[in-house]
């Protein structure tokens, strides 16, 4: 048993700090023609059995030809192949990807890329060092010019999410997509270096619960002064996603919102929820919760505030209701679902000198921050931790 665990530890790529991930980029786009250009480092292009050294700034045209990928540059047609792969040689290699059909803005990416035809399109799968990917995700989710300790806290959440969702696209042959469906990933950001430095300061660390199981790494923009219990927003009650008071975010712009809704629309919604609207008075509609409410109760009918939020597309599920003659005025607090880390509060804590671990412990009750090899592997399906496509870089 001990030997089995030992070999497992050293065979699972995610457990090593040099792990690469495969991310399908422009995953929402039916790519058929792409320009790809090495901009930094040194690239080899692998076409079937042959390997060709690319020049810096060489422009390659990648297009679909049936089930194959056709590669050309301005001087030469290289032919059509099942798979075309660019492999960085220096460890600090960057290339530019520019979709032509359909047209999309160009993006920079780190490390390697492989192209092949599947799902009636060209797939572009970026095979990238895990920590570089985490840095790009942290920037996409947090924005530039924030505090290093906030970036570190966000990096722990992004890494924990990556760890627990690494098999999300297993059946499609890659680890994660670049959309919100997984984590927003827009390639190598301009502000890459200082965020990457923060990410490397907490390299390989993730957040686990008391049983060493990776947590559900929830976060949101602003909690309005009190975070939500997980079961009040989703179904599952998790011991580390408890409602806490958070005075650090309440002066941020996202802490408050206002919305006016015609009374007729409000009553239509209430009727749908089973309220006898014929009996309604203005007094029945008014609602002034003292803290983050779970229900808006009208004439004895409990309506989950998350249901109200979803129906009217409100910024949050925490609001007061003041009824007027022809409209109701909602005065709301926070932005987002309210579960887990409040980004505005985390930023304020970082500005006050709190370190990333204090920030994580403020928002997640009773968790631990550990190196990936300490994770309880009972919770992980070992085969899900492989990097895909398997054979490209070996
Ligand atoms: Zn996805
Ligand atoms: Zn907050």
Please provide a written account of the structure.
Among the domains are: 31-119, no CATH class; 216-366, no CATH class. The protein has helices at 2-11, 130-142, 148-164, 192-201, 230-233, 263-272, 282-285, 305-312, 343-351, 356-363; strands at 20-24, 33-40, 43-47, 50-53, 60-65, 68-72, 77-81, 83-88, 94-101, 107-110, 112-118, 121-129, 176-177, 205-208, 219-220, 256-262, 295-298, 301-304, 319-323, 327-333, 341-342, 368-371. The longest helix has 17 residues, at 148-164. The two termini are 29 Å apart. With 394 residues, the chain is α+β, with helices and mostly antiparallel strands. It contains 10 helices and 22 strands. The relative contact order is 0.14. It is elongated. A 7-stranded mixed beta sheet has the order 4-3-8-11-12-1-13. A 6-stranded antiparallel beta sheet has the order 7-6-5-2-9-10, with no helix packed on it. A 3-stranded antiparallel beta sheet has the order 16-20-19. The chain binds zinc ion (2 copies). One zinc ion binds at residues 168-169, 176-177, 179, 181-182.
């Amino acid at each position: 048993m001990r030997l089995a665990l030992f070999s497992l530890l050293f065979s699972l790529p995610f457990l090593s700090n040099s792990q690469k991930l495969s991310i399908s980029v422009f995953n929402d786009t039916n790519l058929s023609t792409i320009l790809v250009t090495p901009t930094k480092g040194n690239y080899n292009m692998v076409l079937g059995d042959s390997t060709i050294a690319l020049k810096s700034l060489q422009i390659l045209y990648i297009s679909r030809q049936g089930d194959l990928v056709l590669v050309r540059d301005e001087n030469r047609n290289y032919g059509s192949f099942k798979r075309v792969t660019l492999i960085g040689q220096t460890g600090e290699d960057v290339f530019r990807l520019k979709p032509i059909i359909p047209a999309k803005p160009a993006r920079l990416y780190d490390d390697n890329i492989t192209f092949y035809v599947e799902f009636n399109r060209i797939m572009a799968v970026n095979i990238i060092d895990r920590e570089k990917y985490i840095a790009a995700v942290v920037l996409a989710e947090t924005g530039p010019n924030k505090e290093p300790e906030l970036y570190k806290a966000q990096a722990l959440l992004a890494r924990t999410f990556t760890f627990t969702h690494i098999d999300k696209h297993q059946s499609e042959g890659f680890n994660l997509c670049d959309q919100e469906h997984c984590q927003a990933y827009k390639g190598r950001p301009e502000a890459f270096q200082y965020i990457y430095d923060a990410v490397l300061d907490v390299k390989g660390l993730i957040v686990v619960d008391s049983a060493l199981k990776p947590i559900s790494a929830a976060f949101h923009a602003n909690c309005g002064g009190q975070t939500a219990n997980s079961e009040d927003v989703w179904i599952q009650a998790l011991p580390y996603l408890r409602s806490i008071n958070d005075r650090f975010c309440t002066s941020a712009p996202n802490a408050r919102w206002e919305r006016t809704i015609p009374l007729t629309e409000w009553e239509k919604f209430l009727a749908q929820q089973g309220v006898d609207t014929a009996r309604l008075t203005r007094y029945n509609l008014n609602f002034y919760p003292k803290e983050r409410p779970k229900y808006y109760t009208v004439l004895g009918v409990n309506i989950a505030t998350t249901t109200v939020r979803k129906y009217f597309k409100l910024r949050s599920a925490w609001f007061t209701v003041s009824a007027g003659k022809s409209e109701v005025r909602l005065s709301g607090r926070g932005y987002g679902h309210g579960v887990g880390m409040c980004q505005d509060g985390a930023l304020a804590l970082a500005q006050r000198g709190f370190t990333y671990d204090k920030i994580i412990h403020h928002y997640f009750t009773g968790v631990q921050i550990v190196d990936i090899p300490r994770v309880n592997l009972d919770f992980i399906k070992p085969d899900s931790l492989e990097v895909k496509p398997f054979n490209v870089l070996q």
